[in-house]
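Listing S7. Sequence submitted for prediction.
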Amino acid sequence: MNMAPEEKLKHKKAARSNSSKHDHSPAKKMKLSVRDSKQPNTSGGSDNLAQIQQLKDQIVELKSTIMQRDHTIMEKDKTIGALKTELLFKDKEHSQSLQAINKRNETQVNALKEQIRDLTKQLDQSYQKARLR
């Protein structure tokens, strides 16, 4: 099929716009560029320069994406660190609280055992007095 140069240009632009609607990720753009660069070059050095510029632009875009993701990761690491610190602090507080409760309960149990011994002695004494009478 023979097309006029203007029709070829329109066809290429339409194909590029259709493919760019579907491929938004830099990795996919890179793959397309690599495929395009493997195709034989028919129009000379200007296409090579355009492809080089396109690849440079993609590199800049990918570096920007990497920087953004690194920043996000660093922020999340800070958040994780803060949450771990808070968790350790709360665990320590909880452990101390449980120890205090256990100590208080042990003291109360010992006091109640002592009270039971005293009452048992009094009861035994009352039985002995009742038997003697």
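Caption to Listing S7: primary sequence and predicted structure tokens for the chain studied. Residues 45-132 form the longest helix (88 residues). The helical segments are 5-22, 26-38, 45-132.
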